[in-house]
Amino acid sequence: MPPGTASAQVAVIVNRSNPIQNLSLSDLQRLYLGQSATFSNGARVVLVTNPAAQGRFFNTALGMTDDRFQRHWMELVFQGQDVTPPKPIANGEELNRFVAEHAGALAFVDLAAVDPSVKVMTIDGRAPSDPAYRLR
Q: pTM for the full model?
């Protein structure tokens, strides 16, 4: 990235009723790679992707390209695994509304698109405003 160019922050969001405040990066990876389908409290997760932020998220959180992420999920489905692929929602307003209406929703979005209807998670105890936040 050229000097002086600001990088948009990616925020991980959940439904406001979700009691979980923090996810480890490894938990986030397990969820988005289909290796786990529940939060640590046992609640079922509904994964959501945001095409506007997924390149940054897949790269920083999962170490994957968009194409590799899509192939990974196709392989899981093809192998007959009991998984539900993430639901893509492109519009930030629609994404916030979906997360606000679904107790188990887990999504990522540009921090600037987050509204008060959802809760921003910390990752490894760090908020998006923290310089050491892992999803920059």
A: 0.91
